[in-house]
Amino acid sequence: MPLEVEIPPMGESISSGILAKWHVKDGDAVKKDQPLFELETDKITSEGTAEAAGTISLKVAAGSEVRIGQVVAMIDAAAGSAPSKKQTATPFAAPTAPAAQAKAPDVVQSPAVRRIAEETGVNPAEVAGTGKAGRVTKGDMLAGAEPPARPAAAAAPATTAAPVAPAAQPGERQTRKKLTPLRQKIAERLVAAQRGAALLTTFNEVDMSAVMALRSKYQDDFVKRNGLKLGFMSFFVKAVVQALREVPAINTQIEGDTLVQNHYYDIGVAVSTEKGLMVPVIRNCDSLGMAGIEKSITDAAGRAREGKITLADLEGGVFTITNGGTFGSLLSTPIINPPQSAMHAINDRPVAVAGQVVIRPMMYIALTYDHRLVDGREAVTFLVRVKQAIEDPSRLLLGL
After folding, report:
1. Is 23 a catalytic residue?
2. Which domains are seen in the chain, by residue range?
């Protein structure tokens, strides 16, 4: 009996979405757990997978609005072993390399990995995977397709390039593309944040010399022990947690006519994806070490980029850190999510130290806050505490 492929539940607040893309064609042979489609909602972009092997029959066109529970395809499990006339035998083969025509291994690849393979001709089967169970990640593919050298500022949380606009045809002056539900929701929330809160931004600058020296000294040992690099973001997360403890007014929110004081430290880390900005939340940062924070950020950012983030991953954050410096920003004013801070590019520039002009790696940091909840003195104090912790990382270990 054919198996129905339904739109899975996304959460109580989501009843519909847009079936943005099919990863298979009508009549293709599919494998169990193979990604079938991408579903875009006003909150997240997720991926639907096959529950059984067989031949698939599509019932809904890409770009259609679909309801939760709606049947969008059928899988004929009895035909699972039969080859499909429409299935391509070498999806990752480079057209000019005959030796690369062998079929890729029977593994499930993420949409990001498949897209990079199609664009660059890099075969995932020839790339060493660093993901779970040796799975090839987007970062592995990029490392295989690009020179290994990267700018220092890219050591902060992983991000991806902005969505590519539709290609213009010769003679066309404009192209149009409908906003995705996620992009529409982002627009609504940003406008609502500006309209519904009394936003102010305060700035400071941080000398990154101590953190950079610490990372340089212990990076090799950290990688050997934990299997990943020590980035800048974990220092800022720990600094923010400590500052929130010292200035609890920042860790508050308004619910109607009630002021709610939070006594936990779940920190959101903004990640730029092809579908828009997402803010996965790292839980209980006060109880995590540097390695725990780095692993959590790497995992959350990877799932966000691959469309595997869930609503639970995005909810409950008390503070958000975003980093415009990875794109070359020097200074900007972030919008609260609520309360949100931003760090930006590290730049060598002359500063006065003990009456002398020296060259130091400096970074601007900014805190945007809701003046209905937070006074200027508290905001400035909070940012100074973050600055002190970053400029003297030993304070993070001693809790000073």
Report:
1. no
2. 3-155 (2.40.50.100), 182-398 (3.30.559.10)
